[in-house]
Amino acid sequence: MTDKLIIFDTTLRDGEQSPGASMTRDEKVRIAKSLERLRVDVIEAGFPAASQGDFEAVQAVARAVKETTVCGLARALAQDIDRAGEALKEARRARIHTFIATSPIHMRQKLRMTPDQVLEHAVEAVKRARRFTDDVEFSPEDAGRSEEDFLCRILEAVIEAGATTLNIPDTVGYSVPEQFGATLRRLRERIPNADKAIFSVHCHNDLGLAVANSLAAVLNGARQVECTINGLGERAGNAALEEIVMAVITRKDVFPCHVDIDTREIVPCSKLVSNITGFPVQPNKAIVGANAFAHEAGIHQDGILKHRETYEIMRAEEVGWTANRMVLGKHSGRNAFKARLLELGVEFSSEAELNAVFQRFKDLADKKHEVFDEDLQALLTEVGVEAEDERVKLVALKVCSETGKVPCAQVTLRTERGEVYGAAEGSGAVDASFRAIEAVVATQSQLLLYSVNNITTGTDAQGEVTVRLEKGGRIVNGQGADTDIVIASAKAYINAVNKLLAPQKMHPQVPGNV
Ligand code: KIV
Ligand code: ZN
């Protein structure tokens, strides 16, 4: 039997730190359920000290997840650790992940602390976390640029204080595989009590090397990899879970370890994360991109037809690519609807809530006869968004678009001022709609991105629109889905406006936040 490689998913924490990717409590719970079906070992659910909302989101994930370990991030500060411990109280298995920066530049410029003070904070933090759980992870932030002697000193001390996992983050994505692998090996050799803890890695993708660096570390003894679905994460993102997992499985001959992942859940989970965050997956993305298993060139097709392995090293079905499965239709009853949603990990807190969502499903099934899992997920995202305290809501939209005429839009929005009407002309129906909405809400934000994807195939498919807005350096993503893409676009714009109006989350790693 080979060693187990622990898959630690941080989509809900580091993934969420990606500008525009913030998630609501219910969205986090839906993703956590999907991660549990994927059978990841640890779900990092968030940073409970950030706000009451973040605390409640971690708490909700801790309650909803049955088997998987749920982890909360905490700076090496007593109040953060107590908050994480409290949020995780109801988790079946709880982990506290505490961190403090150890690179000369971070200690000097960000923390304004000496190495000895940093070490003392780290030890105190780990001891405090052990009051809440036996499962404590410690990260020396910016380890990729830290001095090795200091890393050895601090890691030895935190193991002594009770840390059970030592995570080596390449916070700024500076490392390269051979060097990072060698660092892991030397740390394991030099730290006298290294055998008392599991070594983990957490690599960022600034040089496009996050997966390569993580795998180099695995070859040198790391037995936990921190990663995210679709490689979501700060700046260029984190190591992509699907790539790590499939590399270890496909190249068993190279990696001396195994994972316990249900790979058929990879694509559904990837689609869910993309739907909820509004970060589309590029078509040529490994494993989860739409073209990852498409063989278009005639020569490849011929090869594949004769013998699959000629051009394929993995099977599409193995990672969850199946033809869209029609799960429900116009004649499906309430019980079938409820049962399918239960399978997707969605439970309703009341009959009234179920009835409201069921009615939305019926409306959709009237317009679109075949309703797939992806449609249900988009519908749930929309209902969830409405349930949050929405300040602006779409009441009605009318657009006119005619050859030779200037497109125009008229919109009625429900706002704190009651129902407000706005009208505008634009270069197209979508542009006119956005201008009409802006005439009411006046956010004066800048549109950074507008993208449309069809959720499933066919002209009756729902269009899923992502709108990214920026105001004063703050970036938010809004999503909307509808069988009419102009309406989907208006919903996405309004969703982004609501996020701009919501309070901003605290980031655990920025200077000033220690
Ligand atoms: O990138 C990083 O250093 C982190 C730490 C909080 C582990 O995300
Ligand atoms: Zn990170």
Automatic annotation (TrEMBL):
Annotated gene: leuA
Domain Pyruvate carboxyltransferase: 5-267
Organism: Candidatus Methylocalor cossyra
Pfam families for the chain: HCS_D2, HMGL-like, LeuA_dimer
Enzyme class: transferase
Keywords, ordered alphabetically: Acyltransferase, Amino-acid biosynthesis, Branched-chain amino acid biosynthesis, Cytoplasm, Leucine biosynthesis, Manganese, Metal-binding, Transferase
Pathway: Amino-acid biosynthesis; L-leucine biosynthesis; L-leucine from 3-methyl-2-oxobutanoate: step 1/4
SUPFAM superfamilies assigned: 2-isopropylmalate synthase LeuA, allosteric (dimerisation) domain (SSF110921), Aldolase (SSF51569)
Family classification: Belongs to the alpha-IPM synthase/homocitrate synthase family. LeuA type 1 subfamily.
Superkingdom of the source species: Bacteria
Reactions that this protein is recorded to catalyse: 3-methyl-2-oxobutanoate + acetyl-CoA + H2O = (2S)-2-isopropylmalate + CoA + H(+)
Protein name as it appears in the record: 2-isopropylmalate synthase
Chain residues that bind Mn(2+): D14, H202, H204, N238
Region (Regulatory domain): 393-514
Cited PROSITE patterns: AIPM_HOMOCIT_SYNTH_1, AIPM_HOMOCIT_SYNTH_2, PYR_CT
